[in-house]
Design brief:
The chain is an alpha/beta fold. The chain has helices at residues 18-29, 41-54, 70-78, 108-136, 157-176, 196-200, 205-211, 220-231, and strands at residues 9-13, 33-38, 60-64, 89-92, 139-144, 182-189, 241-244. It is built from 8 helices and 7 strands, in the order E-H-E-H-E-H-E-H-E-H-E-H-H-H-E. The chain binds NADPH dihydro-nicotinamide-adenine-dinucleotide phosphate. Pfam families: adh_short.
């Protein structure tokens, strides 16, 4: 079922933890070669060592990348190793939620960081792979959105706004490329156990745990499986959008 992903080159942003880490693991398990990117290079090197231990044949390139820094993104993609220079699949997964504030208390710095990462960062990275995908007339771009990009909840207005914006960009890109064989997918997860809440609460472990109180959370593997499924369909079909959530949030 996942055979089509074998020997493909897959670029994953935000691979140092959570969904991105699990996505890298499952793609390598099914024979893909991966460029794993994030700001924490030490985590990526650890992941590479673990993956090579199990899959010595895999090609794995850890790449330190801050998706908000356009010049750095351009430079990093211009220096990819030869085997990775024309990615078959891009997974825009890096994202942050900062704070849990009503609109009245929003902090400008957090607003900027969320839009820079969740919206501008996706555009900057996507722009690096589109020319070669267009030239080869093939490729898959998967954006990790959120259920909060479909509806909003209180105290997460800006995060939700960034994911609504991402959804709009994903839809536009799909239309812009629908005369080609480039497929554009949005995966919208609900609540899952990752470092996401720790980052959101400024690393307050107690608060972070309480936010998901009583919910049987998804694991990062649940989201990784859906992402692999979407990436490995026959090129004649595209899974435009898929939501996946814990039963309590469905
Ligand atoms: P994590 O916090 O575990 O992972 C976020 C990843 O994004 C990290 O690898 C982090 O790496 C990377 N990242 C953050 N900022 C940047 C940046 N400026 N440049 C490059 N990489 C960056 O959270 P999740 O795995 O849960 O989140 C992954 C995606 O899933 C996000 O887009 C999130 O919005 C979305 N999501 C998460 C849900 C959840 O409940 N967990 C629900 C719905 C959607 P580093 O810090 O090393 O740069």
């Amino acid at each position: 079922m996942f055979e089509r992903i074998r020997n493909k080159t897959v670029v994953i942003t935000g691979a140092s933890s959570g969904f991105g880490n699990s996505i890298a693991r499952i793609f390598v398990k099914y024979g893909a070669n991966v460029v794993i990117t994030a700001r924490r290079l030490d985590r990526l090197e650890e992941l590479k060592a673990e993956l090579l231990d199990k899959h010595p044949e895999a090609k794995i390139h850890p790449l330190k990348l801050d998706v908000t820094d356009k010049a750095a993104v351009v430079e990093a993609f211009s220096k990819l190793p030869e085997w990775a220079s024309e990615p078959d699949v891009l997974i825009n997964n890096a994202g942050v939620a900062l704070g849990f504030d009503p609109v009245s208390d929003l902090v400008e710095e957090n607003i900027t960081k969320m839009f820079d990462t969740n919206v501008k960062g996706v555009v900057f990275v996507t722009q690096q792979v589109l020319p070669s995908m267009k030239k080869r007339n093939e490729g898959v771009i998967i954006n990790i959105g959120s259920l909060l990009g479909i509806h909003s909840v209180g105290n997460l207005s800006i995060y939700s706004a960034t994911k609504h914006a991402l959804r709009a960009i994903t839809d536009s890109l799909r239309i812009e490329t629908n005369s080609t064989k480039i497929r554009v997918v949005e995966v919208d997860p609900g609540m899952a156990e990752t470092e996401f809440n720790l980052v959101r609460t400024g690393h307050d472990e107690e608060l972070s745990k309480n936010m998901y109180n009583g919910v049987d959370l998804m694991t990062p593997e649940d989201v990784a499986e859906v992402t692999l499924f979407a990436a490995s369909r026959h090129p004649r079909c595209v899974i435009s959008q898929v939501s996946i959530a814990p039963q309590a949030q469905a």
